[in-house]
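Input structure tokens:
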């Protein structure tokens, strides 16, 4: 089979559906092998997702962050998302679990990627409150970094 453009178009439009239960089990597996170190990998995964989402959003005429939020929501990562300057709040994150820690590492990575694309600057992204800790929503804070390297 020739790997031409039609094949690429078909293969990049494929999706898998993963249940929350399966998702939590995979997180447990990674944490059992790598402990907290896997959280950095989850964050980098999220950043990679965010870069692709940002590329898609750039082709849309609407407000960039709003479009990114719609795409993140559409992929099932969150139920709601609100942007207020450098603070982003979400509810219903796929990454929430009952563990009293902040857990939304992929969402944090996605937000970093889309803010960097939107402002063409480097950002750090912190999750200050998480539904996993019993908060009413997850609250992320984007902080501009000194220089883009
Ligand atoms: Zn969270």
């Amino acid at each position: 089979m020739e790997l031409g453009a039609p094949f690429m178009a078909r293969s990049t439009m494929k999706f898998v559906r993963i249940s929350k239960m399966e998702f939590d089990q995979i997180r447990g597996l990674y944490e059992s092998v790598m402990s907290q170190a896997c959280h950095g990998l989850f964050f980098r995964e999220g950043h990679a997702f965010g870069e692709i989402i940002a590329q898609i959003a750039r082709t849309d005429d609407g407000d960039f962050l709003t479009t990114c939020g719609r795409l993140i929501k559409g992929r099932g990562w969150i139920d709601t998302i609100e942007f207020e300057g450098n603070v982003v709040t979400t509810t219903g994150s796929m990454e929430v679990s009952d563990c009293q820690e902040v857990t939304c590492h992929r969402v944090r990575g996605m937000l970093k990627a889309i803010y960097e694309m939107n402002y063409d600057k480097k950002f750090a992204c912190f999750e200050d409150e998480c539904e996993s800790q019993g908060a009413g929503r997850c609250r992320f804070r984007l902080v501009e970094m000194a220089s883009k390297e």
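Residues 93, 96, 102-104, 127, 130-132, 138 surround zinc ion (CB under 6 Å). The chain has a mean pLDDT of 92.
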